[in-house]
Amino acid sequence: MTLGRYDYERRYRKRMRAGAIKFLLLAALVLGVGLFSYQMGIEQLKGRDVTLREEIATLSRQKAELELLATQMQHAARTAEARAAELEGRLQREVPTGELAKLTQLVSERLKSGIDANRLSFVISQAQVQRNCQPADTKRFTLSTPLLKGGARGVTFGNGTVTVTGEGQSAHNAQGNAESWFDPGQPVTIRITGIGGKTATVTGVLPLHQSLVVDNSEYRFTFAASQRSFVEVTADRCTYP
Predict the structure, then answer these.
(1) How far does Cα 165 stand from its chain's mean position?
(2) Core-most of 53, 89, 169, 196, by most CB within 10 Å?
(3) What is the pLDDT of residues 192-210, one digit of tens each?
(4) Domain definitions of the chain by residue range
């Protein structure tokens, strides 16, 4: 009886030791796996931290580069705006406008036509505000129309030096029929002819203005509608230049 009981207890203790060993081995295994996993997690976190730090550093460099580029572009834009303002001011100062632009175009056309630049400069330099002019002379004449073409119509100025003629469109009566006199509400054409064949033509609705230089005199004409069928012309004759 004593021997059987002893064997039973010994086997029990042996099983307990084996179970404890297994438990310890299993705990060690679990602990080892846990520690390994923890270490792997730490390493991964370290790797991610390094990667994030590198990405942050890259983004910071890119941000700095973009800020520098933006600053350079702003500086370039301000420089361009200042340059544009300078060019606009220079354009306004140097490019002629208004009456000066007309005179510049006229001088350019005269030079292209072959007039000597020295002569043109002399003429301009001799122009004065106060001019030597004769009293204005006013006359009137009838305009030719499609129904009034026959006969000589016109007036002369400067003892026949300049002849003025013209033509217009026929007026219409209440019935819509054309009349022999011109319609002052329609464009007319006035021709000024000087001795030697020099001419000037102006077209439009009255009143009109035109000038012609003949010899050493400049004739300035003003044309206005007068009594039916007539045009009144006023001529100023001044020494040229």
Answers:
(1) 44
(2) 169
(3) 999 888 899 999 999 999 9
(4) 1-92, 96-127, 133-239
